[in-house]
């Protein structure tokens, strides 16, 4: 369980992020998928990360310090068609540089909208992570929006698609920021990653 979460800093330049002196886990996914909302849900602080009904709210790399121990990072979304190409390319370069270069990054949660059938952009992003050696897990969001069977159908379809390209699909979680579904399970997993990083078992 997370007891305390504090905002540290926002950056557009990955090179200006805080000193990489502790475990770090980032949330990434399409614009509007619910990254900032899920950060607020697991830290139990409604206004910690800024959220919006409109895609494109988070535009910087945001560091939060969790329990004076590790960093949780909220990133801008990918695939937001409505910003101009220059801005979009800028965000994408910032995200990919951050993910490739951040030496203390021990996990990346790729958030996927559980309401939708498999989306090409999410599959491509996860395959990019696999190629770059970015350690990804899948986090399906907004599970409160439809029946459990529909959620499960979309997830199974997603995993099947992924399995066409990778030997083993990453681990996944089912969540709702609205209802708190999956919150404990995901937090436990993140804290376990931090423990492994601290003990030197992980070598990001
Ligand atoms: N019903 C429901 N709505 C959600 C859930 N998570 C997020 N939302 C809504 O989805 C919208 C987008 O949420 P954000 O958390 O701002 O999404 P984001 O991925 O951070 O978006 P960007 O920063 O723009 O990339 C908001 O209107 C949220 O209230 C959820 O679990 N259930
Ligand atoms: Mg956001």
Automatic annotation (TrEMBL):
<dbReference type="InterPro" id="IPR019987">
    <property type="entry name" value="GTP-bd_ribosome_bio_YsxC"/>
</dbReference>
<dbReference type="InterPro" id="IPR006073">
    <property type="entry name" value="GTP-bd"/>
</dbReference>
<protein>
    <recommendedName>
        <fullName>Probable GTP-binding protein EngB</fullName>
    </recommendedName>
</protein>
<keyword id="KW-0547">Nucleotide-binding</keyword>
<comment type="function">
    <text>Necessary for normal cell division and for the maintenance of normal septation.</text>
</comment>
<dbReference type="InterPro" id="IPR027417">
    <property type="entry name" value="P-loop_NTPase"/>
</dbReference>
<keyword id="KW-0342">GTP-binding</keyword>
<keyword id="KW-0132">Cell division</keyword>
<keyword id="KW-0717">Septation</keyword>
<keyword id="KW-0479">Metal-binding</keyword>
<feature type="domain" description="EngB-type G">
    <location>
        <begin position="21"/>
        <end position="196"/>
    </location>
</feature>
<keyword id="KW-0460">Magnesium</keyword>
<comment type="similarity">
    <text>Belongs to the TRAFAC class TrmE-Era-EngA-EngB-Septin-like GTPase superfamily. EngB GTPase family.</text>
</comment>
<keyword id="KW-0131">Cell cycle</keyword>
<dbReference type="InterPro" id="IPR030393">
    <property type="entry name" value="G_ENGB_dom"/>
</dbReference>
<dbReference type="Pfam" id="PF01926">
    <property type="entry name" value="MMR_HSR1"/>
</dbReference>
<dbReference type="InterPro" id="IPR005225">
    <property type="entry name" value="Small_GTP-bd"/>
</dbReference>
